[in-house]
Amino acid sequence: MRLLVVSNRLPVTVSEKEGQIKFQKSAGGLVSGLSVYLDSLKSSSIVEKKYLWIGWPGVAVAEKKKDEVKKKLLSEVYSYPVFISAKEMDNFYHGFCNKTIWPLFHYFPSYTVYDDAYWETYKKMNETFRDAVLEVVRPTDAIWIHDYHLMLLPKMLRKKLRNPIGFFLHIPFPSFEMFRLLPGKWRTQILEGLLGAHLIGFHTHDYTQYFLRCVHRILGHEHNMGKIIVDDHVIKADTFPMGIDFKKYHNAVCTKEVQKHRKELKKTLGDYKVILSIDRLDYTKGILKRLQAYEAFLEKNQEWHGKVIMVMVVVPSRIGVEHYQEMKRQIDALAGKISGKFGTLSWTPILYQYKSLPFHPLVALYSVSDVALITPLRDGMNLIAKEYIAAKKDMTGVLILSEMTGASREMGEAIIMNPNNVEEIVDALEKAMSMPEKEQIRRNQALQKRLESYDVSKWAESFINDLVALREEQRKFNDKILGPAARKILVKDFMKAKKRLVFLDYDGTLIPFSEDPRTAKPGRKLLKILEGIAANEKTQIVLTSGRNRDTLQNWFGSLDIELIAEHGIWLKRKSKDWQMIKPLTNEWKAQILPVLETYADRLPGSFVEEKEYSAVWHYRRADTETSSLIAKELVDYLINFTANIDVQVMQGHKVIEIADVDVNKSSAGMHWLSGNKADFIMAIGDDWTDEYLFKVLPKTAYTIRVGMTQSYARFHLRNNKEVLELLGRLVRS
Predict the structure, then answer these.
(1) Are both 689 and 700 inside the same structural domain?
(2) Annotated catalytic, 505?
(3) 173 shares its domain with 136
(4) What is the DSSP letter of 714?
(5) Domain span at residue 620?
(6) Are residues 229 and 252 in the same domain?
(7) Looking at 12-21, 241-250, 580-589, which range is the least confident one?
(8) What is the DSSP pairing of strand 20-25 with strand 12-17?
């Protein structure tokens, strides 16, 4: 298996000097992190040596140079370029990605731009990446797509390929209330695009749950332990907190290069306590709040005047964007104000640099800093916090970390604070500056142990292993689909059988679910199919349903078929009257119905259906998320409430039904099975209530579950359309 890594940027940036194509390593946590893992694959048995990285080469390449760039990238750095024009990149990257998705997903809705032209370019660029993947993909490749630039790509690829597809989001996934600010068409297509993947990864459990909630509320797909099944496609959303190359940062401290920079820094910084502030220029990083807190700290703690210095490094980013230009001006002004307000001839409170730092000077700065002050207002992970701890070879130093970062979920030994509250940041600074060295070491030992055990290679390996395992689960699902070959055998067995017994569920099996179950009447096509099958004297059809007997009698009484109503309470054989499977009482309804009515009042769109010997709470028309929570609450309550009542609580598709404990479709089905010499038995159903019947039928029976989910059934069909197609073939046979 070869691994295809797909991201907006390649791990190198292409340039041309004196007619020669040159490569320079790209910056960023994704490139540095994945590069470590990809290097490890060279000795791995999981993935062959020649992985391939697909992405934009960092510049618009002239047409005449494209072939040369492509060949050089493939041969030297295992990369395949996606060529994008400057105008397209402006609308795609600088437009939709960074003016729409970036601010919204980081909870800055006032900065969010909703531009149809941006959205159309975003779709087009995802198609461009799709085409690039299709040019090089092999049937045995695994595909790993990265980040918010390519959220439509998984679905685009799944339409064309059977390869395992993974997606990882490196920024936060927002709450439903934030995500729903996107126009309806956009948010739907983004979620559907992501669901094209087999495995979708996020940094934190919160982000994973936000995603699942959005999928539920916008698309209506429920999940079971993070797994979603759409048609015949199994998707899992899970948490994979990204690590760093711990050993790289930890061991670098002792190298000659870092030690040289340490000496220079020590000479410059003297005996000052050093507070480190380092971030890319971005409104999400909370740099202004950080400066305001430092100013408040100096005002409150005069004893630290002349004894502390903040080394503030701001890495240039998106310098052409107005928001960023204005923020840079504000940072410059506030930093200058603080130095002017508190500084003396011998002491400057802030050492401010507007530039990026190479690796060795960066590690040296980490290692000499007494405190790292990291205050993002929202951050997917924040690898700087992890790099700082990894570089503390002597275990000293204090990490102050925003609770709005993904890293805070796994770095609880840091001083965690709210970055929006200046007072909290000041308190954190005071605690950090006075923390005993022994306490620093205790905290950092725990942090380093955790970071070393789950480094970036472990992160990537965990994701790929889960992707491979999920693909195998998908294969097992596919094996159970009643495909053309299996259908052919089924029809053949049906034709040669001397006596046939066919059990058919109704709602969700023969017809799709309806917003109002009371209106879901059978159409002429369905009735004609049932009539056609029943017309053969060898065939006995038993229609099994949770509906009441009056409804079934009204809809199907004219057909020469047999009926099971209310999940097995009532039975009707051909040309005979309805009979109960056993004597029942409904005295318990007086206790149960008020409970159901109370919950119906609580949830708009839900209602109670009273049958002769059962009671049903329907919530198909109610809000999806709210109804799921209330339904769970109701089930828990009913199970406890009915502990001493001889009834059972059954959960179906958007329904909760209470009925006699001994009544189900299997007990009803046994009436037809006992003494029946049928040499062809088939049962089709879509709900867990049908599982009772699947379990008691012979292993040779054709048991078929509609929809892709765990089942006792031997086979699956995707939907009711496929059921009708199958039954139509039996009529014609």
Answers:
(1) yes
(2) yes
(3) yes
(4) S
(5) 589-660
(6) no
(7) 12-21
(8) antiparallel
Which value, in Å, is the radius of gyration of the alpha carbons in the chain? 32
Rounded distance between C-alpha atoms, residue 97 and residue 152, angstroms: 12
Q: Which helix (H) or strand (E) holds 208?
A: helix 205-214
Extract the runs of DSSP E, i.e. beta strands, from 375-468.
398-402, 415-417
In a domain, residue 464? The reply is no
- Contact criterion met (CB below 8 Å) for 659 and 586: no
* 515-565: pLDDT as tens digits: 777 788 999 999 999 999 999 999 999 999 888 899 999 999 999 999 999
How far apart are the C-alpha atoms of 729 and 529, rounded to whole Å?
9
Region label for 306, one of left (φ > 0), alpha (ψ between -120 and 50) or beta (otherwise): left
Q: Is residue 207 part of a domain?
A: yes
**DSSP strand pairing (607-610 vs 614-618):** antiparallel
Could you give the CA distance from residue 271 to residue 284 in angstroms, rounded to a whole number? 32
Same domain, 204 and 113: yes
Query: CB under 8 Å to 41, separation ≥6 — which residues?
Result: 3, 47, 48, 49, 51
How does 474-505 read in b/e, with b if 16+ C-beta sit within 10 Å?
A: beebeebbbeeebbeebeeebeebeebbbbbb
Tell me the H-state helices in 612-719: 624-641, 665-673, 691-696
- Give the 3-state secondary structure of residue 661: coil
Strand runs (DSSP E) across 57-110, as ranges?
Answer: 79-81
The answer to whether residues 673 and 572 belong to one domain is yes
Report the candidate in 668, 665, 656, 655 with the shortest Cα–Cα distance to residue 692: 665
**H helix or E strand, kind and range, residue 236:** strand 233-239
> Both 423 and 541 in a single domain?
no
**24: amino acid identity, one letter:** Q
Could you tell me if 392 and 527 lie in one domain? no
Give the pLDDT confidence of 324-374 residue by residue, as tens digits. 889 999 999 999 999 999 999 999 999 999 999 999 999 999 999 999 999
Which one of 279, 370, 505, 687 is the catalytic residue?
505
